[in-house]
Every structure is written in C-alpha cells, then in structure tokens.
Amino acid sequence: MTARGPRLVLLGKQGAGKGTQAVRIAEHYGVHHLATGDLFREAAAAGTELGLEAKGYMDGGFLVPDDIVNGVVEEQLHASDRAEHGFVLDGFPRTREQAEELDRILGPFSLDLAIDLDVPTEVVLHRIAGRRVCAQCQAVYHLDNPPETNWTCDVCGGKVVQRDDDTQEAVMRRLELYEMKTLPVIQFYRRAGILAHVDASDETEEVFKRLVELVDSYFDPGARAL
C-alpha cells in the first residue's frame, strides 16, 4: 500500500482566506497546493498546448474557457502523480459542471473532502473593502493595519490606494456572482456526502486549527494508504 495525503477542495467567498489556508494545509500534510492561476502559469512555463492557450486568454484579459481550464487541471493533477498522492485544490471547481469534470479527471482517486470556508458577508466586506495596496510594489495593507505614515508604503514609499475591484460595490457584485455559481457546487458535494463547513471568520491560526481537526477526523493521518 502506498502512503498518501488527503485530497481536498477548498470552497469559499472572496476574502474567506482560501489561498492562505490552502498553502498551510498543503504544507501540513505534505501535499501539493493547486491554485488555478498557478496551474495555468506552470503549464505555460512547461510549454504545453493547453497552458499556452490559457496564457493567451489571460494575457488578453479574458476568462479562460472551461474546456481549457478542465484540460490544464487534468494535466497538472496527473503530473508527478499528484492525484494519487494528495492535493489541496483552490479555485477549482467553480461551477457544477467543473465539479462533475473533476470527478471524471480523478477517476479512482476520489476526493476526501470539499471544505466550505464559511464567512459572513459583512466580515468579507470588511476584509476586502478595507484592503489597500501599494501602487508600486503591491504590498498589502488594511484600514485596520495601515502603513506608518500617511498612506505611504513602508516598503518602497509608494502611494497606498484602494483598488477599483475592492470597493464595497465591486465586492458585492463578486459575492452575488459567487453565490449564483458556487451554490450548485456546494449542493453537489453535499449530495456526495463529502461536504464540510468550517467557520473562517476568526484569526488565521484559529481557522487553520479547525481545518486540521476536521481533516484528521475524516482522514486518519496514521493510515494514509490507497
């Protein structure tokens, strides 16, 4: 029997902390963190046909079509036996159709858990609408944690501003779109019996502890075998 780590999908609104927690969970269990943007860049750097197609769409400011997204995810999941040995997927699937396609891609290597990071809308709004970014070096600040001097970047001295897509109106539009597209994904995994919810409204460390406790309760770290 071959030891393996858990196979996980992280779901959650923008501002729920998916990226941060996915990195920590992957490090904790010794599995790959697979974020869609990183997968596209990795495939493009490797010169795969699908990776170069995805790069063309991204460079032009367009959404990557589902057939290319699915193809890149399939390529990268099976690279170095990632599907077999465990992973944390972040940013995929975003739709019911993508969730069904992920099942096909994985074949016998089924998911252990789909985890929804649950954060109230008002918390997400505070996190994102309060975010400020240096226009020069992209260092990130917040209304709760501003730079030391008059919204001037502590790192490079650049002007710290609010991005257009971080305004409350823009965030609300993104949240509405998320609810419309992702609710069917949550229902899909609920019916499959592998959906779990974690309260992600607290500090990063507390949320991470909850995630580890949850994963360990479903996936015995002492018996990681196929």
Key phrases:
about 230 residues, 5-stranded parallel β-sheet, 3-stranded antiparallel β-sheet, single chain, alpha/beta
SSE topology sketch:
Layout: E1 7-12, H1 18-29, E2 32-35, H2 36-45, H3 49-59, H4 66-78, H5 82-85, E3 87-90, H6 96-106, E4 113-118, H7 121-129, E5 131-134, E6 140-142, E7 160-161, H8 168-192, E8 195-199, H9 204-218
Parallel strand pairs: 1-3, 1-4, 2-3, 4-8
Antiparallel strand pairs: 5-6, 5-7
Helix pairs in contact: 1-9, 2-3, 2-4, 3-4, 4-6, 6-8, 7-8
Q: Largest beta sheet, briefly?
A: 5 strands, parallel
Structural class: alpha/beta
CATH homologous superfamily title of the domain at 7-31 and 86-218: P-loop containing nucleotide triphosphate hydrolases
CATH architecture of the domain at 7-31 and 86-218: 3-Layer(aba) Sandwich
Provide the CATH top-level class of the domain at 7-31 and 86-218.
Alpha Beta
What is the ordering of alpha helices and beta strands?
Answer: EHEHHHHEHEHEEEHEH
Overall spatial form: globular
The residue fraction in helices comes out at 40-55%
What is the CATH third-level topology name of the domain at 7-31 and 86-218?
Rossmann fold
The chain-level mean pLDDT equals 88
Low-confidence stretches: none
- What is the overall number of helices? 9
